[in-house]
Amino acid sequence: MPSQDRRMPGQSDASVFRIPPYHYLHVLDQTTNVTRLETGPQTFVRKDNEVVLLSPERMVTVPPRHYCVVLNPVLRDENNQVLIDNLGQVRLQHAEDEVRLQQEPFPLYPGEELKVKVTLLAVVSALAALRLNVTRDFTDENNQERKAGDQLLFEGPGTYVPRKEVEVVGQHKAIVIKPNTAIKLRATRETVDRNGKNRVAGEEWMLKKNGAYLPGVYEEVVESCTATFLTDKVAVHVTATQSFTDETGKQRKSGEEYLITVNEMETFIPDVFEQVVGKVNITTLTNRQYCIIVNPIGENGKPQLGAKKLIKGEKSFFLQPGELLENGIQDVFILGDNEGVVLRAQEAFKDQFVTPPVDRQPGDKWMLKGPMEYIPPVEVEVVSKRRAIPLHDNEG
To answer: Is 204 exposed, middle or buried (0-12, 13-18, 19+ CB in 10 A)?
Structure first.
């Protein structure tokens, strides 16, 4: 018989088995085909119609802070007594698992198997957690129903006691948010974050509070951001990817571009709806320089497309998004006694530089003679700079 193949070598014909304390063996009654359990200490005498399937084995001992998993556990009544069917064999919970913790040494009944050997319980440290996946529906200790497919976090510090309804799929550690840093989080499904705010699947948000943060079970870290330090010489060019209200309380429209300067904040971490285009250095003019800005920002905060604005030194400023410098930073025209400049009007304006003021029309040309300092307005184009030609009395 196949069952007889499990006899220990040299004991196939033995009739007397001495079972020490905390040991057990399995005996098959060949008349009824029922296997029973015999535990020690005792001296077992085998009958002619019986076969010892399992020689004396040591009982399973689960020490403190350990556990084991038994497959096909026996059924017990309210008094913790093993249930026997009408054929005299123990009743099993087939294909079930049972987690057993510290207890008195126990034998394995016929049909029971040790699925997971005696193993040390997992200790979860502070600022760490185990990710658990629910494999079957159950109600937890807080009387909360859990559905198959749900995921849970067992947060430390603590000792995790396994359950047959869940499995450990991973381990997480808290992220330490240092000063001038932040993390961007994304919800993988509808959830409530640690601040009690409802989040929908795919929603992203920034977390800038310093300290350790353990992402929730349905939260994932998208990236870690480092702040940009702003000074009186450096600003940040930012684009809004979606309409929102920024940290300063300003309403930003989708696609809007703006500058963040040191006057607003010392360090800048882009919001989830902000995208940094780049850094902008300050533009500085001396008292002998000027520049012309194309598409300047108006009083309403919008770029005046096609317009021009003259900036005279001494001055420092940041170019706003959309603004350009025409011909860069230019030097003031300094004319000596024998020098002059030829000018042409590009559009109609009233020339206040001369006395009395003159109305200029597009295309008008005139010359200014030194000595003087001259900064052409935006309506004027400098055609050329000329120098006087000295002539002798007999020359012309």
So the answer is: middle
| Burial annotation 344-363 (CB, 10 A radius, 16+ → b, else e) | bbbeebebeeeeeeeebeee
What's the predicted TM-score (pTM) here?
Answer: 0.72
Percent of the chain with pLDDT strictly greater than 70: 95
Query: To which residue do tokens 């030097």 refer?
Result: 331
Taking the CA of residue 358 as centre, how many other CA atoms within 13 Å lie in the half-sphere pointing to its CB? 10
What is the arithmetic mean of pLDDT over 327-352?
Answer: 90
Q: 70-79 b/e with 16+ CB inside 10 Å = b?
A: bbbbbeeeee
Mean per-residue pLDDT, 33-51: 91
Question: What is the C-alpha to C-alpha distance for residues 309 and 293, in angstroms, rounded to an integer?
Answer: 5
Rounded distance, CA 167 to CA 214, Å?
A: 20
Q: What's the whole-number average pLDDT of the chain? A: 89
Phi-psi group of 346: left, alpha or beta (phi > 0 → left; psi -120 to 50 → alpha; rest → beta): alpha
Judge whether residue 119 has pLDDT over 80: yes
pLDDT value of residue 58:
94
Q: How many CB atoms lie within 10 A of CB 340?
A: 19
- What span, in angstroms and rounded, lies between the C-alpha atoms of 379 and 106? 101
CB neighbours (10 Å) of residue 240?
19
pLDDT mean over 366-388: 89
Cβ atoms within 10 Å of 90's Cβ, excluding its own: 19
pLDDT per position as a tens digit, 287-301? 999 999 999 988 887
The pLDDT score that the predictor gives to residue 391 is 72
